[in-house]
Design goal:
Strand content: 25-35%
Largest sheet: 3 strands, antiparallel
Shape: elongated
Structural class: alpha+beta
Helix content: 25-40%
Distance between the termini: 29 Å
Number of strands: 6
Strand order of the largest sheet: 2-1-3
Length: about 110
């Protein structure tokens, strides 16, 4: 039964970071999405919303990163956020300070 549960967790869509590298731009456009098609749709909506002209020929590279629990980070609204997964947070991200408190408490409980 445990093996089945682990397999089902493995089969859930996993959020990944899709980085679109555009000709003439120093930094990539980043999309967090469950799938490549969802990331592509998000990019199309962003282009439509901003009016920036980006065509398929402008995309030089696409890199896909798997987010690592407790390791992957980003800056949002000036705060460092740590990836904790959708099971622990609605967005999957938690402020670093809050994450450190929880990690420290868990470590104490396991000692």
């Amino acid at each position: 039964m445990v093996e089945l549960i682990n397999f089902m967790n493995y089969m859930k869509p996993q959020i990944k970071l899709y980085k679109y590298y555009i000709k003439g731009k120093e930094t990539p456009i980043k999309m967090e999405a469950d799938s490549r098609s969802q990331a592509d749709d998000m990019l199309v909506r962003l282009v439509e919303k901003t009016g920036v002209k980006i065509t398929q020929n402008d995309i030089e590279d696409l890199r896909i990163e798997t987010l690592v629990l407790g390791q992957s980070s980003k800056i949002k609204d000036g705060k460092k956020m740590i990836w904790v997964g959708k099971e622990k947070s609605q967005t999957g991200w938690m402020e670093e300070g809050e994450f450190k408190i929880i990690a420290r408490n868990n470590k104490k409980q396991n000692e």
